[in-house]
Fold this sequence. Notes:
By secondary structure, this protein is α+β, with helices and mostly antiparallel strands. It has 14 helices and seven strands. Helix 4 (84-92) crosses helix 14 (267-281), helix 7 (149-165) runs antiparallel to helix 8 (168-181) and helix 10 (195-203) packs across helix 11 (210-220). It starts with a strand and ends with a helix. 40% of the residues are buried. The model has no long low-confidence stretch (mean pLDDT 96). It binds a DNA duplex through residues 20-21, 110, 113-121, 123-124, 161, 164-169, 171, 206-212, 215, 228-233, 251-253, 275, 279, 284-285.
Amino acid sequence: MPGQIVFAAPFDLAATLASGQVFHWDNPSPGTFAGLIGEDPAVLHQPVPGAPVEVLVGETATVGHYLGHDHDLPAIQSTFPRDQHIAAALAWSPGLRILRQPRWECTATFITSSMKNIPAIRKMSLEIRSRFGQRTEADGHVFHTYPDPDTLAAAGETALRQCGLGYRAKSLASAAGAVASGAVDLAAPASAVSLEEARAHLTALRGVGPKVADCVLLFAYGRTDAFPIDVWVERIVLELYLKKKHKKNRTPAKVRAFAESYFGPHRGYAQQFLFHHARHHLKAR
DNA sequence: CTCCAGGTCTCAT
DNA sequence: ATGAGACATGGA
Protein backbone atom coordinates (compact mmCIF):
# COMPACT_ATOMS: atom_id res chain seq x y z
CA MET A 1 0.00 0.00 0.00
CA PRO A 2 1.03 3.63 -0.45
CA GLY A 3 3.16 5.19 2.21
CA GLN A 4 6.57 6.57 2.78
CA ILE A 5 10.05 5.14 2.33
CA VAL A 6 12.77 6.44 4.58
CA PHE A 7 16.29 5.68 3.43
CA ALA A 8 19.10 5.03 5.89
CA ALA A 9 21.44 7.07 3.72
CA PRO A 10 20.71 10.07 1.48
CA PHE A 11 18.73 9.00 -1.57
CA ASP A 12 18.23 11.02 -4.75
CA LEU A 13 15.20 9.80 -6.70
CA ALA A 14 15.62 12.16 -9.66
CA ALA A 15 19.30 11.37 -10.13
CA THR A 16 18.65 7.65 -9.85
CA LEU A 17 15.84 7.59 -12.41
CA ALA A 18 17.67 9.94 -14.81
CA SER A 19 21.13 8.39 -14.67
CA GLY A 20 20.83 6.33 -17.83
CA GLN A 21 20.08 2.99 -16.20
CA VAL A 22 16.33 3.13 -16.91
CA PHE A 23 14.47 5.03 -19.61
CA HIS A 24 10.70 4.97 -19.21
CA TRP A 25 9.93 7.15 -16.18
CA ASP A 26 7.87 10.28 -16.62
CA ASN A 27 8.52 13.43 -14.62
CA PRO A 28 5.13 15.21 -14.79
CA SER A 29 5.99 17.79 -12.16
CA PRO A 30 9.05 18.67 -10.10
CA GLY A 31 9.95 15.82 -7.76
CA THR A 32 7.21 13.53 -9.07
CA PHE A 33 7.89 10.42 -11.13
CA ALA A 34 5.40 8.06 -12.70
CA GLY A 35 6.24 4.71 -14.24
CA LEU A 36 5.79 0.98 -14.10
CA ILE A 37 7.80 -1.31 -11.88
CA GLY A 38 7.36 -4.47 -13.88
CA GLU A 39 3.58 -4.50 -14.29
CA ASP A 40 2.86 -2.43 -11.20
CA PRO A 41 2.05 1.28 -11.57
CA ALA A 42 4.05 3.56 -9.35
CA VAL A 43 3.84 7.28 -8.69
CA LEU A 44 6.60 8.57 -6.46
CA HIS A 45 7.37 11.95 -5.02
CA GLN A 46 10.50 13.33 -3.45
CA PRO A 47 10.40 17.10 -2.85
CA VAL A 48 14.18 17.38 -2.55
CA PRO A 49 17.05 14.88 -2.72
CA GLY A 50 17.52 13.20 0.64
CA ALA A 51 13.92 13.54 1.73
CA PRO A 52 11.75 10.44 2.29
CA VAL A 53 10.13 9.07 -0.87
CA GLU A 54 6.38 9.31 -0.83
CA VAL A 55 4.71 6.40 -2.60
CA LEU A 56 1.50 7.94 -3.96
CA VAL A 57 0.71 4.87 -6.06
CA GLY A 58 2.23 1.46 -5.54
CA GLU A 59 3.35 -0.92 -2.81
CA THR A 60 6.09 0.48 -0.62
CA ALA A 61 7.76 -2.94 -0.43
CA THR A 62 7.82 -3.27 -4.22
CA VAL A 63 9.07 0.27 -4.69
CA GLY A 64 11.72 -0.10 -2.00
CA HIS A 65 13.04 -3.28 -3.56
CA TYR A 66 13.21 -1.61 -6.98
CA LEU A 67 15.00 1.44 -5.62
CA GLY A 68 17.64 -0.59 -3.78
CA HIS A 69 16.39 0.58 -0.39
CA ASP A 70 18.42 -2.19 1.25
CA HIS A 71 21.74 -1.19 -0.33
CA ASP A 72 24.16 -0.02 2.33
CA LEU A 73 25.41 2.97 0.39
CA PRO A 74 27.95 4.25 2.94
CA ALA A 75 29.46 0.77 3.18
CA ILE A 76 29.56 0.45 -0.60
CA GLN A 77 31.10 3.88 -1.05
CA SER A 78 33.71 3.13 1.59
CA THR A 79 35.11 0.41 -0.68
CA PHE A 80 35.81 2.90 -3.47
CA PRO A 81 39.34 4.16 -3.99
CA ARG A 82 39.93 7.55 -2.41
CA ASP A 83 40.83 9.79 -5.30
CA GLN A 84 39.66 13.20 -6.45
CA HIS A 85 37.55 11.91 -9.34
CA ILE A 86 35.55 9.52 -7.17
CA ALA A 87 35.20 12.26 -4.58
CA ALA A 88 33.85 14.70 -7.16
CA ALA A 89 31.36 12.17 -8.49
CA LEU A 90 30.10 11.30 -5.00
CA ALA A 91 29.75 14.97 -4.13
CA TRP A 92 27.79 15.61 -7.32
CA SER A 93 25.06 13.04 -6.60
CA PRO A 94 25.62 11.30 -3.27
CA GLY A 95 22.18 9.69 -3.31
CA LEU A 96 22.50 7.87 -6.62
CA ARG A 97 21.52 4.21 -6.46
CA ILE A 98 21.58 1.18 -8.70
CA LEU A 99 18.05 -0.08 -9.40
CA ARG A 100 16.77 -3.67 -9.41
CA GLN A 101 15.08 -3.78 -12.78
CA PRO A 102 13.08 -6.64 -14.30
CA ARG A 103 15.45 -8.91 -16.23
CA TRP A 104 13.88 -9.06 -19.65
CA GLU A 105 12.88 -5.40 -19.72
CA CYS A 106 16.41 -4.35 -18.85
CA THR A 107 18.02 -6.77 -21.29
CA ALA A 108 15.75 -5.69 -24.13
CA THR A 109 16.15 -1.96 -23.62
CA PHE A 110 19.94 -2.23 -23.51
CA ILE A 111 19.93 -4.33 -26.68
CA THR A 112 18.37 -1.30 -28.34
CA SER A 113 20.87 1.10 -26.75
CA SER A 114 23.86 0.64 -29.02
CA MET A 115 24.89 3.75 -30.91
CA LYS A 116 21.95 5.75 -29.60
CA ASN A 117 21.88 8.65 -27.18
CA ILE A 118 19.75 8.42 -24.07
CA PRO A 119 16.78 10.46 -25.37
CA ALA A 120 16.63 8.19 -28.42
CA ILE A 121 16.76 5.04 -26.28
CA ARG A 122 13.89 6.40 -24.25
CA LYS A 123 11.86 7.13 -27.34
CA MET A 124 12.34 3.63 -28.78
CA SER A 125 11.49 2.09 -25.43
CA LEU A 126 8.27 4.08 -25.09
CA GLU A 127 7.29 3.29 -28.66
CA ILE A 128 7.76 -0.45 -28.06
CA ARG A 129 5.72 -0.19 -24.87
CA SER A 130 2.83 1.73 -26.39
CA ARG A 131 2.64 -0.51 -29.45
CA PHE A 132 3.07 -3.92 -27.85
CA GLY A 133 2.62 -3.51 -24.09
CA GLN A 134 -0.49 -3.74 -21.96
CA ARG A 135 -2.18 -0.47 -21.13
CA THR A 136 -2.82 0.27 -17.49
CA GLU A 137 -3.99 3.38 -15.70
CA ALA A 138 -3.60 4.66 -12.18
CA ASP A 139 -4.27 7.99 -10.56
CA GLY A 140 -4.76 9.68 -13.92
CA HIS A 141 -1.50 8.37 -15.34
CA VAL A 142 -1.42 6.03 -18.33
CA PHE A 143 1.20 3.28 -18.47
CA HIS A 144 2.21 0.56 -20.89
CA THR A 145 4.06 -2.55 -19.72
CA TYR A 146 7.23 -3.62 -21.45
CA PRO A 147 6.11 -6.47 -23.76
CA ASP A 148 7.26 -9.96 -22.79
CA PRO A 149 9.59 -12.05 -24.99
CA ASP A 150 6.75 -14.02 -26.56
CA THR A 151 5.00 -10.85 -27.66
CA LEU A 152 8.11 -9.33 -29.21
CA ALA A 153 9.10 -12.60 -30.86
CA ALA A 154 5.64 -12.76 -32.40
CA ALA A 155 5.81 -9.11 -33.44
CA GLY A 156 8.91 -9.80 -35.50
CA GLU A 157 11.76 -7.76 -36.89
CA THR A 158 9.76 -5.67 -39.35
CA ALA A 159 7.30 -4.41 -36.74
CA LEU A 160 10.14 -3.61 -34.36
CA ARG A 161 11.90 -1.69 -37.09
CA GLN A 162 8.90 0.59 -37.21
CA CYS A 163 9.62 1.58 -33.63
CA GLY A 164 12.77 3.27 -34.86
CA LEU A 165 15.15 0.45 -33.93
CA GLY A 166 17.02 0.33 -37.20
CA TYR A 167 19.46 -2.58 -37.35
CA ARG A 168 18.77 -3.31 -33.66
CA ALA A 169 15.36 -4.75 -34.61
CA LYS A 170 17.00 -7.93 -35.83
CA SER A 171 18.84 -8.35 -32.53
CA LEU A 172 15.81 -7.70 -30.37
CA ALA A 173 13.59 -10.04 -32.37
CA SER A 174 16.23 -12.75 -32.19
CA ALA A 175 16.82 -12.28 -28.46
CA ALA A 176 13.08 -12.31 -27.76
CA GLY A 177 12.80 -15.59 -29.64
CA ALA A 178 15.68 -17.14 -27.75
CA VAL A 179 14.18 -16.24 -24.38
CA ALA A 180 10.64 -17.16 -25.40
CA SER A 181 11.73 -20.60 -26.62
CA GLY A 182 13.78 -21.26 -23.51
CA ALA A 183 17.02 -21.47 -25.47
CA VAL A 184 18.32 -18.77 -23.15
CA ASP A 185 17.21 -18.79 -19.53
CA LEU A 186 17.27 -15.37 -17.87
CA ALA A 187 17.26 -17.03 -14.46
CA ALA A 188 20.63 -18.63 -15.16
CA PRO A 189 22.81 -15.53 -14.66
CA ALA A 190 21.36 -15.11 -11.17
CA SER A 191 22.78 -18.44 -10.02
CA ALA A 192 26.06 -18.15 -11.88
CA VAL A 193 29.03 -18.24 -9.56
CA SER A 194 31.48 -16.17 -11.53
CA LEU A 195 30.89 -12.92 -13.32
CA GLU A 196 32.30 -14.49 -16.44
CA GLU A 197 29.77 -17.29 -16.35
CA ALA A 198 26.89 -14.89 -15.76
CA ARG A 199 28.09 -12.79 -18.68
CA ALA A 200 28.30 -15.83 -20.94
CA HIS A 201 24.62 -16.66 -20.40
CA LEU A 202 23.63 -13.20 -21.58
CA THR A 203 26.03 -12.82 -24.49
CA ALA A 204 24.39 -15.89 -26.00
CA LEU A 205 21.68 -13.43 -27.03
CA ARG A 206 22.15 -11.59 -30.30
CA GLY A 207 22.86 -7.93 -29.69
CA VAL A 208 24.31 -8.59 -26.24
CA GLY A 209 28.05 -8.06 -26.08
CA PRO A 210 30.25 -7.40 -23.06
CA LYS A 211 28.99 -3.87 -22.42
CA VAL A 212 25.27 -4.66 -22.57
CA ALA A 213 25.79 -7.84 -20.55
CA ASP A 214 27.51 -5.86 -17.81
CA CYS A 215 24.74 -3.24 -17.80
CA VAL A 216 22.11 -5.94 -17.40
CA LEU A 217 24.05 -7.74 -14.68
CA LEU A 218 24.46 -4.47 -12.82
CA PHE A 219 20.98 -2.99 -13.29
CA ALA A 220 18.85 -6.15 -13.15
CA TYR A 221 20.86 -8.82 -11.32
CA GLY A 222 22.47 -6.73 -8.62
CA ARG A 223 25.97 -7.70 -9.71
CA THR A 224 27.74 -4.60 -8.44
CA ASP A 225 31.02 -6.12 -9.56
CA ALA A 226 29.99 -5.81 -13.20
CA PHE A 227 31.67 -2.78 -14.79
CA PRO A 228 30.08 -1.69 -18.08
CA ILE A 229 32.55 0.09 -20.35
CA ASP A 230 30.90 2.34 -22.90
CA VAL A 231 32.32 5.33 -24.77
CA TRP A 232 31.81 7.55 -21.71
CA VAL A 233 33.40 5.26 -19.16
CA GLU A 234 36.27 4.46 -21.49
CA ARG A 235 36.86 8.16 -21.94
CA ILE A 236 36.69 8.74 -18.18
CA VAL A 237 39.23 6.04 -17.40
CA LEU A 238 41.55 7.13 -20.20
CA GLU A 239 41.35 10.84 -19.44
CA LEU A 240 41.32 10.71 -15.66
CA TYR A 241 43.32 7.62 -14.79
CA LEU A 242 45.44 6.48 -17.74
CA LYS A 243 46.21 9.89 -19.21
CA LYS A 244 49.96 9.67 -19.06
CA LYS A 245 50.25 6.03 -19.93
CA HIS A 246 51.85 4.87 -23.11
CA LYS A 247 49.55 3.85 -25.98
CA LYS A 248 50.23 0.23 -25.22
CA ASN A 249 48.50 0.69 -21.86
CA ARG A 250 45.48 2.54 -23.24
CA THR A 251 43.78 -0.30 -25.11
CA PRO A 252 40.25 -1.49 -24.25
CA ALA A 253 41.71 -4.59 -22.60
CA LYS A 254 43.94 -2.41 -20.42
CA VAL A 255 41.04 -0.18 -19.47
CA ARG A 256 39.09 -3.23 -18.35
CA ALA A 257 42.02 -4.67 -16.43
CA PHE A 258 42.59 -1.35 -14.69
CA ALA A 259 38.93 -0.96 -13.75
CA GLU A 260 38.70 -4.48 -12.31
CA SER A 261 41.75 -4.01 -10.14
CA TYR A 262 41.29 -0.38 -9.14
CA PHE A 263 37.63 0.36 -8.36
CA GLY A 264 37.03 -2.46 -5.91
CA PRO A 265 34.35 -5.11 -5.36
CA HIS A 266 31.47 -2.68 -6.05
CA ARG A 267 33.08 -1.16 -9.14
CA GLY A 268 29.76 -1.16 -10.99
CA TYR A 269 28.42 1.28 -8.43
CA ALA A 270 31.56 3.40 -8.76
CA GLN A 271 31.09 3.33 -12.52
CA GLN A 272 27.55 4.68 -12.21
CA PHE A 273 28.67 7.60 -10.05
CA LEU A 274 31.47 8.42 -12.50
CA PHE A 275 29.19 8.06 -15.51
CA HIS A 276 26.47 10.29 -14.08
CA HIS A 277 28.99 12.92 -13.06
CA ALA A 278 30.84 12.87 -16.37
CA ARG A 279 27.68 13.18 -18.44
CA HIS A 280 27.07 16.54 -16.80
CA HIS A 281 30.62 17.84 -16.81
CA LEU A 282 32.56 16.38 -19.73
CA LYS A 283 32.07 17.73 -23.17
CA ALA A 284 31.43 15.31 -25.98
CA ARG A 285 34.51 15.13 -28.06
C1' DC B 1 23.13 19.77 -43.22
C1' DT B 2 26.70 17.42 -40.56
C1' DC B 3 27.98 14.99 -36.56
C1' DC B 4 27.48 11.51 -33.30
C1' DA B 5 25.20 8.36 -30.11
C1' DG B 6 25.67 3.92 -22.63
C1' DG B 7 28.14 -1.37 -29.27
C1' DT B 8 27.93 -5.63 -31.68
C1' DC B 9 28.97 -8.55 -35.41
C1' DT B 10 31.90 -10.04 -38.97
C1' DC B 11 35.99 -10.72 -41.18
C1' DA B 12 40.52 -9.51 -41.71
C1' DT B 13 45.59 -9.80 -39.69
C1' DA C 1 44.05 -11.62 -29.37
C1' DT C 2 43.62 -7.07 -31.90
C1' DG C 3 41.79 -3.90 -35.59
C1' DA C 4 38.81 -1.98 -39.28
C1' DG C 5 34.03 -1.44 -41.34
C1' DA C 6 29.31 -1.85 -41.56
C1' DC C 7 25.26 -1.09 -39.46
C1' DA C 8 19.84 2.32 -39.38
C1' DT C 9 17.92 6.08 -37.23
C1' DG C 10 17.12 10.30 -34.99
C1' DG C 11 18.56 13.92 -31.55
C1' DA C 12 21.44 18.07 -31.13
